[in-house]
Design goal:
Layout lengths: L5 H24 L6 H4 L18 H25 L1 H28 L7
Length: 118
Amino acid sequence: MLDPYIGILILTLVGVLNAGAMMGVSHLVGSNRPTAVKASPYESGITPLGTTRERFSVNFYLVAMLFIVLDIETLFLIPWAAVFREFGIVGFLEITAFLLVLGVGLVYAWKKGALEWD
């Protein structure tokens, strides 16, 4: 009963063992000499300004969430486009409703000022 899954189990086991072996070898072979320069944050060659514990604006997180939602929308659109002809008019109407709901949400967020950087 488990015969079809043996290959997947072996592949998973080899992957986990490989990752563990690479981490173990790098830990044993690599040197660890911490210095103040290595411990400081890297800001593209510029001396860091301020603290690293700075608070971000809520708009930053709102834009990030909107980006994720629209990114997931693309993940739904690509498979739909691949089988577009098989769904016919019903599939077209469903994806139109899906895009309409997302569009209305985006316009709402835009009108509320979620995309404004003050």
